[in-house]
Amino acid sequence: MSVLTRDEAQTRAQLLDVHHYRVDLDLTTGDETFHSRSLIRFTARTAGDTFVELKPETLHSALLDGKPLDITTLDGNRLPLSLTEGEHTLRISTTMRYSRTGEGMHRFKDPTDGESYVYTQLFMEDVQRVFAAFDQPDLKAVFELSVKAPEGWTVLSNGITEQQPDGRWQSAPTPLLSTYFVCVAAGPWHTIRTEHAGLPFGIHCRRSLGAHLDADAEEILAVTKACYDRYHEKFDEPYPFDSYDQAFVPEFNAGAMENPGLVTFRDEFVFRSAVTVTERQTRAMVIAHEMAHMWFGDLVTLRWWDDIWLNESFAEYMGFQTVNEACSDLFPDTWVDFGIARKAWGYEADQRPSTHPVAPDPEAVPDTASALLNFDGISYAKGASALRQLVTWLGEKDFLAGINIHFKRHKFGNATLADFIDNLAAATDRDVHGWADQWLRTTGVDTLTPRLDGEGTSWRLTVDRAGSRPHRLSVGVYDRDPSGDLVLRERREVDVPQEAPAELTGPRPALVVLNDEDLTYTKLRFDDVSRETALRDLSRIPDALTRAVVWNALRDMVRDGALAPAAYLDAAVAHLPEESELALLQGVLGFARTQIADRYLSEAERPTALTKIGEIARALLRRTEDGESPGLRLTAVRTCIDSATTPDKIASWLDEGTVHGGPELDPELRWRILARLAVLGATDETVIAAELERDPSATGEEGAARCRAALPDPAAKAAAWSALFDSDDLSNYLFTATAQGFWQPEQAELVRAYVPRFYADAAALGARRGPAMAEAAGRYAFPFHAVDAESLALGESHLDDDAVIPALHRKLVDQLDDLRRALAVRTA
After folding, report:
1. Could you confirm whether 605 is annotated as catalytic?
2. What one-character DSSP code corresponds to residue 539?
3. What whole-number distance in Å separates Cα of residue 255 and Cα of residue 316?
4. Closest Cα partner for 274 from 649, 636, 737?
5. Catalytic residue among 53, 279, 290, 517
6. Helix (H) / strand (E) containing 721
7. 367 pairs with which residues across the strands?
8. String of b and e for 616-646 (b: at least 16 CB within 10 Å)?
9. pLDDT in tens, 608-654
């Protein structure tokens, strides 16, 4: 299949003006394929040659202005067109294949009740799997969809849909949309409908999750309505579509997708087991993120994929900020979670060889295959951090004024980075263009270090910068009170580079924290006294966001070889039993468990690390015996399970169906325990099959696949590997679950022979099943536990293999760099 190049897209945009699509889909033709017909009305500004894209199972016919085209000229995904100047109609009839990889029209059969569901994910090039289109973001058009669906199904789309007398479902015409925003979701949905601000709102999930959606509906709708109202306070342009539906769909590859009027979410956000407030907050943030896209992305759309950050960074920033403003009665400070979880994603991505500017040079994104690689921690987390720094420097009033100018000038059209910066500059006298050059066109992470000079009660604070960006940040100066707690003496704003050192009066501070409110994007170091204080007294810092900043600094120091992994783990043992902020607990425990224990410490040191992590969890269990902190307790229980080095305790929980003192085991905890028992060799296929009979859901099938792949048995490993790479039977989610179970540090010798097999098998899978599955293979099936020089050399030898498609190549570059870093940390 040919990928679309930027030059081809520009040429076609100059030639064509696309007006209207009429798309007719027939979903009643079987479980493997469906019928698709497109009628496209467009104008050719001059005579010329171009092409329309489609990826059919069978191309039945193509008529240009009523005259048949030679369908044998279809070349991969391109049907050539020779056009005269003027108006044209193009009719194309195809049979298309359903997907099981989350791309195009994905079909899912629910094992709980046998019901089937389909939904589209048409991002980048996948609209071509559903209907013929001029598939690029700057050829916007009106879309009307007609869908024939099985009896008993409901069809959802971008506009309000109505069932016709003949049984077909007809959607209302949309405003001008890019092709990748078109969405259909069809099946016997469980639906809850309401109205807000004069618009119909709906939430939908598959029937087997209906009771769980009912339990969460009040919160989901409250968040949706609060964010909708808050955006209307911020934005001058009203919500631009005729309804707002949110569908929670199975086996979804992303967190969610901003289809106008019909946002699709992974249906893990319909919680079927107990979750923490942080996980509920994450769902709220994703709701707010996707709603922000209705303006930034949907109303105003990028012209080419080099500006994808304009969509994602903006939505990421607005998602966290808006939940903080509109839902403060439901959730703690979202910026703590952003700082400890999302921001770390950005820092890690920005220090790999695959890093790129937030706003890459257009020449660096020459085609859609390269564009797909930029959906990463830089386009989301770093970009959102840059925007937060921009708001700090510019002021929110001027920032929103510039955003509203942007919406007004480009609504229902396309815009570029240059347009965005020009519109921001129109609202302020600051040098926004210079700021953009320094922040958006550069790569890497600055490092800031405080230096204190003086004595007695007179101190001069200088911030040393390794890097090139300007920073406006808060510096927190802390003293120790008689009880030993740290108290804020002052918090002052500092611009880096500084014109002059900041003058501090009073005794030498016990702790100086740069970027105290986490308003900029940088790595931090400590002066010698502050480093000692941070490690010894971190839990005595009063503000959770400041603790997040300090934990992030310690994490970066470990990754850079400036702090021993064991020292980080000792700090976690010392301070986490007293921590009350769930986001911090989850973030620090996650890093300690998956990076320090599994990668940064040697195989011989790992059992001791797991024991220490288990000590933290047991301390939290003792602390929460009164039942007052269910989220803390749930986090502690999960950590106890994941860090267990012997099976007896967690096996007794599984047998009894409860943790002593609570909670009772729900499906998530039962499968978590069973997976750990499988790793430890304390269960077998009979027990796994019985648990699947107890929970015959889609999540149960994933749990069983994960457990079976984790069994320390050569036959089980061979079967799992064959399922992953020798056939295409596994859906995207079952593939991921199997891969997650396969590699276990405890089983390094058992699976050693599979390490060299991974590269060729993953390359063949990517070539055969496409970028989504290639990315899944690179992320989940990579032999992450094999931290040795031989594994690194082996992986590097495959980077020049032409058989490795770009999506897999990018994952291999990242994974191998993480492996290189782990080796360096062990050496340091």
Report:
1. no
2. G
3. 12
4. 636
5. 290
6. helix 714-725
7. 5
8. bbbebbebbeeeebebbbbbbbbbbbbbbee
9. 999 999 999 999 999 999 988 999 999 999 999 999 999 999 999 99
